[in-house]
Amino acid sequence: MVVSAHPEASRIGMEILRKGGNAYDATVATQFALAVAFPVAGNIGGGGFLVYRDHNGQTGTLDYREKAPAAASETMYQDSAGNVIEGLSTDGHLAAGVPGSVDGMVKLHQKLGKLPWAVLVQPAIDLAKQGVVLTEKEAQYLNNTKEAFLRNNKHIPYLAREQAWQAGDTLRHPELAQTLERIRDNGREGFYAGQTADLIAREMERGGGIITKQDLQNYNATWREPIMGKYKGYKVISMGPPSSGGIALVQLLTMMEPYDLGKYGWQSAKSVQLMTEAERRVYADRATYLGDPDFVQTPVQQLLDEAYLKSRMATVDLAKATPSASVKAGALPMHESDQTTHFSIVDQYGNAVSVTTTLNGAYGSKVMVEGAGFLLNNEMDDFSVKPGVPNMFGLVGGKANAIAPNKRMLSSMTPTILEKDGKLYMVVGTPGGSTIITSVFQAILNVVEHGMTMQQAVAAPRFHHQWLPDEIQHEPEAIPADVRAILISKGYKLEERSPYGRVDAILVLPNGKLEAGADPRGDDAAAGF
Q1: pTM tops 0.85
Q2: Strand pairing class (504-508; 423-428)
Q3: What span, in angstroms and rounded, lies between the C-alpha atoms of 374 and 356?
């Protein structure tokens, strides 16, 4: 089964499985297909994180997060007076980090792939040539971004056309097809060297960017140890730094373990209050400590220590809200925008892959590499552009996540796999910026504690607390009215927000069958056999 943000990408991943490919082969095919079918977040000009568990129970994670170019510096987005220059880290050429997606897929295939590389890239090439029929949402996204495309490019990108896009229009990607052909024929060198590298370097010169051919040549995706945890008999396997997701998720689950959330009930006053107080402490905690482990020391063991987490919950008073101001404050790290994308795959051999990948903001930096047909990320905004200054999502950064040459920016991505009794149980993840961690947390609890099906668990309305601002943000349908009244009486501030996240997950049922959860908030779709 393959569950992703786009029906075409899910279909392509599944067809690779039908051909006898494994979950890792399907991952490569799906990643490239999303670059074509889902340009708002699918990418070859961005990066991501991957968690896998093979049929023998072996696990690992791949960090193909973007890196700062060698010419990057801590104050590059500030003027001479030290003030942050609006928009410089979010739009245009200077906002882009060195892309990691292609190298990530090459490394995954080299280590775990089964089918030939060319077979995995070809479906995305075919899709780019024949084009993708736009949905209502996609046409709207493109039309809303037209001005930004024109503003941030010296040429007119094909995503911005004269007349407005309509649902049912076919979007073709001829230049992207040629770039993908170079990747198909030359692997890593098809992107990080040769013609594609020339086109990227030329685009940078044209727009005042700083990524060089040397930066491209030097980029490397890295295999890392997973973050491991447990929750009431389930084993949790997730992503470690430079993603904060795995640590935060395991902290939240450990803090909830002593409580009988199933008995309290789904989104009851007690459940919401306990989850909120845990979230408040975790988001404050991760503040100062997390960054690129190749650059800063991350106290992973201390943050995951059970006694420590128990002590964090000891200050919770169920009679009233704990003001965030009284919770130990650091400076919050950065987060992706809601325009990340996630996919989950389980193959017929029992291998599982959970992948979250992004350009950061919607369509990244809005810069399209002329002649190459793909968008560059605006991931540099995920660094602390200046300690204490909020990024594009209103979140404040600390020293551990300051910009440095060749450093990876911090992330919230939380691709996760669960085991039960030594067997594969769930594959889960989502986009959603600072809400990624709490969305995955709720999806897991919805199944494990509240007995929901996978589809019910991903569709259920969600709420979120991230320490600052000190408010429970909730979707319109989340938290029943009587529960809201109780929470307000205890001093909680509630803030309604539009629906967020696109959780795509797979649950292994007791009989070995697979159940998909494809988030109805997007055009997400599952394909399986």
Answers
A1: yes
A2: antiparallel
A3: 19
What's the pLDDT at 335?
Answer: 43
**Structural contact between residues 95 and 380, judged by C-beta atoms closer than 8 angstroms:** yes
What is the rounded radius of gyration, in angstroms, for the C-alpha atoms of the chain? Answer: 22
**Number of residues that make up the chain:** 529
* Rounded Cα distance, 440 and 527, in Å: 21
Question: 296-311 pLDDT, tens per residue?
Answer: 888 899 999 999 999 9
SS3 letters across 95-118: HCCECCHHHHHHHHHHHHCCCCHH
Report, as residue numbers or ranges, the catalytic residues.
Answer: 340
Give CA–CA dist 442/460, Å, rounded. Answer: 9
H/E stretch holding 524: none
Per residue in 461-493, pLDDT (tens digit) is: 999 999 888 999 999 999 999 999 999 999 999
Sequence letter at residue 398: G
CA 213/CA 219 separation, integer angstroms: 10
What confidence category does residue 498 fall into, taking pLDDT thresholds of 50, 70 and 90?
very high
**Average pLDDT, rounded, for the chain:** 94
What is the C-alpha to C-alpha distance for residues 143 and 120, in angstroms, rounded to an integer? 31
Q: Outline where 156-299 has alpha helix (H).
A: 174-186, 189-192, 194-207, 213-218, 245-256, 261-264, 269-289
Residues 6+ apart with CB under 8 A from 273: 318, 321, 487, 490, 492
Could you tell me the two tokens for 478? Answer: 């989340």
- Is residue 223 within a helix (H) or strand (E), and if so which, with residue range? strand 222-224
Percent of the chain with pLDDT over 90: 89
Q: Give mean pLDDT, residues 188-210.
A: 98
Sort residue 332 into left (φ over 0), alpha (ψ -120 to 50) or beta.
Answer: beta
Sign of the CA dihedral running 349, 350, 351, 352: positive
Phi, psi torsion values for 399, nearest 5 degrees: -65, -35
Give the model confidence (pLDDT) of 160-190 as tens digits.
Answer: 999 999 999 999 999 999 999 999 999 999 9
Q: pLDDT per residue over 10-25, tens digit each? A: 999 999 999 999 999 9
Question: Rounded distance, CA 377 to CA 485, Å?
Answer: 42
**Domains of the chain with bracketed CATH:** 2-223+339-401 (no CATH), 228-335+413-511 (1.10.246.130)
**Chain center to CA of 475:** 20
